[in-house]
Amino acid sequence: MTSEQNKTFDLSASFKAYDVRGIVGESITAEIVEAVGAAFIDVLGLEGETVLVGGDMRPSSPEFSQAFANGAATRGANVLLLDLISTDELYYACGALNAAGATFTASHNPAEYNGIKMAKAGAQPISSESGLKEIQALAEQYLNSGTIPAAGTRGEIGVRDVLKDYSEYLRQLVDLSGSRPLKIVVDAGNGMAGLTTPAVLGDKLLPALPFDIVPLYFELDGSFPNHPANPLEPENLRDLQAAVVKHGADIGLAFDGDADRCFVIDEKGEPVSPSAITGMVARREIARAQASGEQTPVIIHNLLTSKAVPELVAKDGGRAVRTRVGHSFIKAVMAEEGAVFGGEHSAHFYFRDFWNADTGMLAAMHVLAALGEQEGPLSELGRQYEPYVSSGEINSEIEDKAGAVERVRVDFETEDIDIDHMDGSTFTAKDGSWWFNLRPSNTEPFLRLNAEAKDQPTMEKIRDRVLALVRA
């Protein structure tokens, strides 16, 4: 590698709390990636070990994968290039092969971005608390010195395809062969689900399942010509909603760009909330764990999921554990508690059988199994898991976020409520009729509101009252 003379590299713009993300050609380049690959080996002590490197369909991912591999090999690690993979395929490979790895993806970010998600052997997460800061510092050192020192023996670079193994593993976890026939519309958003859906749910690599899959935007295209690969935004679900109704489908599935999140649409074209999906999967995972002799299976949920989730978990004989928002918190608590499953309001779903990592595809398979083993439509099934009314997340652009929260606290202090500060401030009516959370964004001037109540009028009343105070 060569460094421009007198140029000082500072990677703090692209190194985030849980991953690396930047604009291609600016804050993330092949030169930077090569240095990060070398630092990854040194910080994790992987000289002489095998590491896994793959990437998504973004145009820069192959070049970046090769650059990372070169940096890693220079520092003495052997590299297996996994080629095109979803993020949960990386987690599968890190778990099944017990090796550390990295994948190039910017998830749901626009086309000009790319990034790196890294994991230790066994798919353990790497975050700013567990090595990412040290990797950044060492990569900057290599870049600013203009050279990556060679290890005693250069590592070898090989190739391995894990798609079939990943697909077989998921099919072992959820047997869909006995499902009633289902028509499924899948919107891959030109992302990695265009590769993984035919492999896992179709007959491309494995025997056919009783599913008729209607593909939407399966062509891998990192320029995202149809819509952004971010199903969290309602406008990005519209094509899927229309297609479900048009084809008379039983269910619609929408994946984000790197296919680690999955959103679900019912046969009427209406979204099924990630909280309802969390409840549905939790029920199945509790029953499965109990059948194998586990007394009180643990389910993790973040504090923004519906209170229906802990209520259902308790009713089914499990134990619900509430956490902060964010996958590093969830994965840590999953490991501490030996939890069987975890769900977030953002449609990240975590499984003990998947090395505590998140996988949109496995969550989708559980929903298909739940739908396929009974005769009713998804709208009816989903209703069982959505007894409350949610506002969804509402952002207010506020500079003095603490002042806004204090205005709300003062206004509500005469009410019969509890307030906790696990992640932002959660206000809960003691009679159980409503709750809301105000959470400041760490990266933007936003205060985020999530509210839930027993019925629509109560939710709207609480929502509007809080927003009036916040935006005053």
Report on this model:
The protein is an alpha/beta fold. It has helices at 30-44, 61-74, 87-96, 132-145, 163-173, 193-200, 238-246, 274-291, 308-315, 327-337, 360-372, 378-383, 401-412, 456-470, and strands spanning 20-23, 50-55, 78-84, 101-104, 113-119, 157-159, 182-187, 211-216, 251-255, 262-265, 271-272, 298-302, 319-323, 341-343, 349-351, 357-358, 389-390, 394-397, 417-420, 425-429, 434-440, 446-453. The protein folds into four domains: 20-161, Alpha-D-Glucose-1,6-Bisphosphate, subunit A, domain 3 (Alpha-D-Glucose-1,6-Bisphosphate, Chain A, domain 3, 3-Layer(aba) Sandwich); 165-272, Alpha-D-Glucose-1,6-Bisphosphate, Chain A, domain 3 (3-Layer(aba) Sandwich); 274-366, Alpha-D-Glucose-1,6-Bisphosphate, Chain A, domain 3, CATH 3.40.120; 389-470, TATA-Binding Protein (2-Layer Sandwich). Helix content is 35%, strand content 22%. Strands 1-5-4-2-3-6 form a six-stranded mixed beta sheet, with helices on both faces. Strands 17, 18, 19, 20, 21 and 22 form a six-stranded antiparallel beta sheet that branches. Strand 21 (434-440) and strand 22 (446-453) form a beta hairpin. The longest helix is centred in the middle third of the chain and has 18 residues, at 274-291. It is an enzyme of class 5 (isomerase). Keywords: Isomerase, Magnesium, Metal-binding, Phosphoprotein. GO terms for molecular function: phosphomannomutase activity. Residues 14-141, 165-269, 281-387 form the Alpha-D-phosphohexomutase alpha/beta/alpha domain.
